[in-house]
Backbone:
């Protein structure tokens, strides 16, 4: 059964949940539904536990979880260029 993480208190103009809160809530739902992480009232904690569980899974199948683990040691400028290119 799929679980939903309720929106935390509304904030911002006209009571809309901010984009970052939506992303956090999505990661919290992912943690609960995919990795069976108990849903805490601290959605940040639930979301981070899900991300950690995903990284642990990736490591268990020997999949890199960072650019460094891929053998790429990029400069700050290269990271910004990569992020810019990935944003379109």
Residues:
């Amino acid at each position: 059964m799929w679980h939903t993480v309720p929106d935390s208190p509304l904030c911002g103009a006209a009571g809309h949940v901010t984009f970052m809160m939506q992303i956090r809530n999505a990661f919290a739902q992912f943690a609960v539904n995919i990795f069976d992480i108990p849903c805490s009232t601290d959605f940040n904690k639930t979301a981070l536990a899900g991300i950690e569980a995903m990284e642990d899974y990736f490591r268990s199948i020997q999949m890199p979880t960072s650019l460094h683990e891929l053998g790429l040691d990029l400069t700050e400028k290269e990271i910004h260029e990569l992020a810019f290119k990935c944003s379109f």
In short: Residues 9-15 have pLDDT under 50 and may be disordered.
